[in-house]
């Protein structure tokens, strides 16, 4: 099977969001406990504890993020993997310091093992360690081998990373410009999270604290350069761009788009979440977005040249500006530079939109499908499922801070107009059926609504609730059949290769039994047909659907009961 490199990076970028989400509270506690604020040592230490254990937090968070159903067993395995890797490295070479990267590697290994082996069947005498209990064991063994290999391989890799980071730091304004421009350009693919993780959590060292973000809050006077330049763009530049889009909208459309643009601009100003606003023009005007990327790079270089040092725990918004101001150097210069950037962005955007007739919000042709009816708000999940081509078209549903991250069977079934009517700011079609829908801060809630809607339709994309998926419908209850005869149950088990060949049984779509099988070659298709199976649909190497009609729920329920009785 061909390895989907881009898809793997997308999944990694999404999984990084969970551990990054703990940083705001860590920064808040650390900052509030400082002597110039509350001067309460235990509050500062509480925040510092999170920063000191970031690698372990990343190991747990990345593992849970990669796991198909975000199960806690993956997180436990990630923690074990990280502890084993670091212990082995410490024994082989105490000078090796992988930091957050060790946590990310352990999390990836644990997540991949979980997805591959969460339903593994073992011989009866090892049945206790089957399924999810197997994941921490195999992850620990893998981490042992990885730790030994990294002990020999990592020193030159670490040297190369240190040199790259040092180049970006030592090259001053040039390195900052390159980073700032790349950061914005990589938003299109969602890979900016990977770059940010290196810059904010790996590059540089100050009294054991690594990465620009950690070093800034640890008191490094030279840290903050890779965060400072985002403040003028996110707090002033992009809100001014939103104002330009409002002023260039058709007069009869300003009332319609004004509220949306205002909310996007306010979100950017207060929190530094800018992707929803950027996606209003990223595809309509790629050249304008390129200018935005260049201006971001210039802002990074300019703020460094002026000697400004600011930091953030989440993003470059007002909240983080106020939080980090006490640790900043010349932080007041943000105001004049920000106002300059506001004027610059407003003039450039207004000129470009009018000059090239860009179809920014309020200038595009109005369609009746552009907005959902009021009653549809309560059915957000089903509406998104429909717009995404239906439940059968969805393979994986996840989210990062601002985007739905999906895997679909056929991207051509996606209704972009309906998605935008439901609030999407942009849709990215990637290779291998990967799809990203930019939603803003509500992305995670929308993803959960979609998963809920899919479970209600009998097609979960995460671990299903067996009690719910096996519940019979009212029509099936009225049929009066509640159990298989012992003879029929024995025939079912024999036709399926015995109970030790079964891993899991569940009802899907009310008329099918989804089975996870150890060896498909042990199936007796003739007997299955004689038992009433209208068809056997192979889904993968170890999965199939039995099309049974009304008796599906009974068969699914009793087969699962036999599997559980057998200790699997």
What would your notes on this structure say?
There is one protein chain. The chain has 568 residues and is α+β, with helices and mostly antiparallel strands. It has 26 helices and ten strands. The chain is 56% helix and 9% strand. The strands form three sheets. Strands 3-4-6-5 form a four-stranded antiparallel beta sheet, with helices on both faces. A hairpin with a 3-residue loop joins β7 and β8. The protein is globular and about 85 Å long. It is a multi-pass membrane protein. The active site is at 400 (phosphocysteine intermediate).
- C-alpha Rg, in Å? 27 Å
User: Gap between N and C termini, in Å?
Assistant: 29 Å
Content-based structural category:
alpha+beta
What's the total helix number? 26
Strand order of the largest sheet: 3-4-6-5
Low-confidence stretches: 367-378, 462-482
């Amino acid at each position: 099977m061909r390895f989907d490199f881009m898809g793997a990076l997308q999944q990694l970028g999404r999984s990084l969001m969970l551990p990054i989400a703990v940083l705001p509270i860590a920064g808040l506690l650390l900052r509030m406990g400082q002597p110039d604020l509350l001067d309460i040592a235990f509050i500062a230490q509480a925040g510092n504890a999170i920063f000191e254990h970031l690698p372990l937090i990343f190991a747990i968070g990345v593992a849970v993020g990669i796991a198909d159903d975000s199960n806690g067993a993956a997180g436990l395995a990630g923690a074990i993997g990280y502890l084993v890797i670091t212990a082995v490295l410490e024994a082989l070479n105490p000078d090796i310091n992988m930091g957050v990267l060790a946590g990310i590697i352990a999390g990836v290994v644990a997540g991949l093992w979980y997805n591959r082996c969460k339903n593994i069947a073992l011989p009866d005498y090892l049945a206790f360690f089957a399924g999810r209990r197997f994941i921490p064991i195999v992850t620990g063994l893998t981490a042992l081998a990885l730790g030994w290999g990294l002990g020999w391989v990592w020193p030159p890799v670490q040297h190369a990373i240190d040199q790259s980071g040092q180049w970006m730091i030592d090259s001053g304004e040039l390195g900052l410009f390159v980073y700032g421009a790349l950061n914005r350009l990589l938003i299109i693919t969602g890979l900016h999270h990977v770059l940010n993780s290196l810059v904010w959590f790996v590059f540089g060292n100050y009294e054991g604290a690594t990465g620009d973000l950690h070093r800034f809050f640890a008191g490094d006077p030279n840290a903050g350069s890779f965060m400072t330049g985002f403040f003028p763009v996110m707090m002033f530049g992009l809100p001014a761009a939103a104002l330009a889009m409002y002023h260039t909208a058709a007069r009869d459309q300003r009332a319609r788009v004004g509220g949306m643009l205002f909310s996007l601009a306010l979100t950017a100003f207060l929190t530094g979440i800018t992707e929803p606003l950027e996606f209003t023009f990223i595809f309509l005007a790629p050249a304008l977005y390129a200018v935005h990327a260049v201006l971001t790079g210039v802002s990074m270089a300019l703020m460094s040249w002026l000697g400004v040092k600011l930091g953030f725990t989440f993003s470059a918004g007002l909240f983080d500006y106020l939080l980090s101001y006490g640790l900043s150097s010349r932080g007041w210069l943000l105001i004049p530079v920000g106002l300059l950037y506001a004027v610059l962005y407003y003039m450039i955007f207004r000129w470009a939109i009018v000059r090239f007739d860009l179809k920014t919000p309020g200038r595009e042709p109005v369609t009746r499908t552009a907005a959902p009816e009021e009653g549809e708000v309560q059915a957000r999940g089903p509406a998104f499922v429909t717009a995404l081509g239906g439940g059968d078209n969805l393979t994986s549903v996840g989210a990062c801070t601002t985007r739905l991250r999906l895997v679909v069977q056929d991207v051509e079934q996606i209704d972009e107009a309906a998605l935008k009517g439901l609030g999407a700011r942009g849709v990215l079609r990637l290779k291998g059926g990967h799809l990203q829908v930019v939603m803003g801060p509500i992305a995670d809630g929308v993803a959960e609504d979609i998963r809920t809607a899919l479970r209600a339709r009998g097609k979960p994309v995460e671990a299903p609730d067996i009690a719910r998926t096996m519940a019979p419908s009212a029509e099936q209850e009225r049929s009066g059949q509640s159990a298989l005869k012992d003879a029929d149950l024995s025939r079912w088990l024999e036709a399926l290769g015995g109970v030790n060949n079964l891993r899991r049984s569940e009802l899907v779509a009310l008329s099918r039994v989804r089975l996870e099988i150890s060896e498909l070659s042990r199936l007796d298709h003739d007997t299955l047909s004689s038992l009433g199976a209208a068809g056997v649909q192979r889904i993968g190497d170890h999965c199939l659907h039995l099309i049974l009609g009304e008796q599906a729920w009974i068969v699914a329920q009793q087969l699962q009961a036999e599997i559980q009785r057998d200790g699997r």
